[in-house]
Amino acid sequence: MAHTRIRKFNTRDTYPEQKLDNDLCQAVVARGATVFLRGQCPQDLDTAANIASADPVDQTHKVMQNIRQLIGEAGGEMAHLCKVVVYLTDVRHREAVYRTMGEYIKGIHPVSTGVVVTALARPDWLVEIDATFVIPD
């Protein structure tokens, strides 16, 4: 059974003043094996080394690549994504981060929460995203 996405929307409609294009929804109804990912940061999964970029777009690509890799290792796929929480250290990076994240969630419509924080675990990190997936029965 596919997940039920309630009240799908796109951020270009809800935030017309911002240059965003994210497919989201207000609620997801899912059944199956729940996979909770640790908050993903712009670092290599094998070595824990930071990527060599202070650009929020580059950092978000790495974060989303890590998320995609981990859900694959858990036996799922990006289409099983139900929720993301985006942590930013600077609200001015919001549009760049959300545009980049949107490339990975196009057509999926997860629920999303965004939070601006004082800092993340490493001073070089600008973005951290945690994700919850449900792999259908």
TrEMBL record:
One GO CC term on file: cytosol
Transmembrane segments: none
One family name in Pfam for this protein: Ribonuc_L-PSP
GO molecular function: deaminase activity
Record family assignment: Belongs to the RutC family.
Record-given protein name: RidA family protein
